[in-house]
Design goal:
Blueprint (H helix, E strand, L loop, with lengths): L1 H19 L14 E2 L9 E4 L2 E5 L5 H4 L14 E5 L3 E4 L5 H11 L7 E4 L6 E4 L21 H15 L8 H9 L12 H4 L8 H6 L38 E8 L17 E8 L15 E5 L7 E2 L3 E3 L1
Parallel strand pairs: 8-11
Antiparallel strand pairs: 1-2, 2-5, 3-4, 5-12, 6-7, 8-9, 9-10
């Protein structure tokens, strides 16, 4: 009996030693839909996006059905299958004025001295001496920051990465459309009805029209309650829990501009060839007519351009 006890104790000690040499358990990636912040003092709230695949681009007939001008057609084709295999988080909201103000304060970044905005009648655009904290219309600290260029957004990413110890970046164009669609295949994730769209997005509507009476592209079927930008989260999220993916402000993306999708990556990475002096913006804005407020719509804009309709949101590979 004594010998049996001695053997059991010896085995137990061996097991004890083995268990103490096990490597520490890896931190698990949060489940899709989980939100988190990497710091408590100004970091954007992030949402974990599920991995998956989707068909990127405009389906046949969508651009004609939406009456997109001929000169703007053909940018979102050919449709192609994208597979997002990497673990990804995207900001729940566009970067707000308060969040951007903290970046400016901590880096002593000088104010820019120009910004393009829609003119008073809504018939065109004019350059002003506006900037991110003085865009020419009232905003709260929770409104999305505007009058920021792609270059400004890159400087913000560098600051946020250094602050948190994690690599932050702009979403790639494929990631952005995957996140905007959130499993939908319609032109918009909320509703394609002009009368219903104001429930889901801040776009060029009757409220906007009262401030810009000359704009002929206004959606006159509804009011969204805002003539300019709206505080982030004022409208319902999409199916991934992300807000304002369509409307409010257009989002800068990481990718270089290419006139269509011929030769585009299919793994969700950024397209880093083409016209890299111009970068992609997506999503429509507070002044936009419905033809451009679509998950598939895309534009190429010079990286130095600052506009009252352009903002950005952040992304991070997990």
């Amino acid at each position: 009996m004594t010998r049996r006890i001695d053997i059991l104790l010896a085995v137990s000690c061996i097991l004890c030693g083995w268990m103490t040499t096990l490597p520490p358990a890896r931190a698990q990636t949060p489940a899709p839909g989980t939100s988190f912040r990497d710091c408590s003092n100004g970091c954007p709230e992030m949402v974990v996006v599920q991995q998956g695949r989707f068909t990127m681009g405009a389906p046949a007939g969508e651009e004609a059905r939406e009456n997109l001008p001929n000169q703007l057609r053909g940018r979102s084709v050919p449709q192609h299958l994208i597979t997002i295999r990497h673990k990804l988080a995207i900001a729940k909201f566009d970067v707000t004025r308060d969040e951007y103000a903290q970046f400016v304060a901590e880096t002593n970044r000088p104010d820019p001295d120009s910004c393009v905005t829609v003119n008073g009648s809504g018939t065109g655009f004019i350059a002003t001496n506006g900037n991110w904290h003085s865009p020419g219309f009232p905003q709260t600290g929770r409104d999305p920051v505007v009058c920021v260029s792609w270059d400004d957004a890159q400087a913000y990413m560098a600051w946020l990465s250094a602050k948190t110890g994690h690599v932050y970046r702009l979403p790639t164009e494929a990631e952005w459309e995957y996140a905007a669609r959130a499993g939908t295949t319609t032109a918009r994730y909320g509703s394609d009805s002009p009368a219903e769209l104001c429930r889901y997005s801040n776009v060029g509507d009757l409220d906007y029209s009262e401030q810009h009476p000359g704009d002929s592209g206004v959606n006159r079927a509804c009011r969204d309650g805002y003539a300019f930008t709206s505080p982030v989260g004022s409208f319902p999220p999409n199916q991934f829990g992300l807000y304002d993916m369509l409307g409010n402000v257009m989002d800068w993306n990481e990718d270089c501009w290419n006139a269509n999708y011929s030769g585009a990556p299919t793994d969700g990475t950024a397209w880093q060839s083409g016209d890299c002096g111009r970068r992609v913006v997506r999503g429509g804005s507070w002044d936009a007519d419905l033809r451009v407020v679509r998950s598939a719509n895309r534009r190429g804009i010079p990286t130095s351009n600052r506009n009252t309709t352009f903002g950005f949101r952040v992304a991070r590979t997990l």
